[in-house]
Amino acid sequence: LTSREASVIVVGRLNRDKRFEETIQAVGMLDNSLKRRVIVHIAGFLGDSNYLQELISLAKRLNVRLRISINMPEREKSYVLSKSMVFVNNSRHEHFGIAVIEAMASGTPVIVHKSGEPWLGTVARGAYGLGYGDVAELSRHLEMVFTNEGLWHRLSQLSIVRSRKYDFKIFKERLLKIIPGT
Going by DSSP bridges, is the β-strand pair 130-132/39-44 parallel, antiparallel, or unpaired? Predict the structure, then answer.
């Protein structure tokens, strides 16, 4: 873990439906010694500048360290995902969530809201990552991931294994098997 930064990465368009405030609130609930070490890193395209200002104000009010990267290039995003301790997807009822797969492919453990495809399919209801129903549960999961090295390593390995299911080469092979005449 020494090569990983004590950061929680959230990725997506900066709009209210992404619910990034939940990650800030969850980190704000951590005990002070852990909270002082953790950085919430929000990376995404600017959608709602008012929402961004609200996130900044919330982080200040809760004494949460916040880093914001607007319009981060893909190459840099891959690097940041591979250096973060944990990825959180706060969206509700998301159809797929490519950022969850990208995080998993980099060996970063994921925590997703218990709704939509990321929970039901990608992390298979907790088989390949963690899920949360409310901010208190998210905070407990973050604490476990940051303080239990064995859990972190197990979730990291499960993430890598699961991300292979979504590899393009594997998808192409499956597709060719079901298309007649190939």
Answer: unpaired
Tens digit of each residue's pLDDT (9 = 90 or more) over 31-86: 999 999 999 999 999 989 999 999 999 999 999 999 999 999 888 999 999 999 99
| Predicted model pTM | 0.91
Under 8 Å CB-to-CB from 46, ≥6 apart: which residues? 14, 52, 70, 71
Neighbours of 160 (CB within 10 A): 15
Phi, psi of 8 (to 5 degrees): -110, 120
> For residue 102, which of 78, 84, 75 has the smallest C-alpha distance?
78
pLDDT in tens, 107-152: 999 999 999 999 999 999 999 999 999 999 999 999 999 999 999 9
Q: Which of 122, 133, 58, 61 is nearest to 90 (CA)?
A: 133
Phi-psi region of 154 (alpha: psi -120 to 50; beta: other; left: phi over 0): alpha
Element (H, E) at 88: strand 84-89
Residue 55 burial by Cβ neighbours in a 10 Å radius (0-12, 13-18, 19+): buried
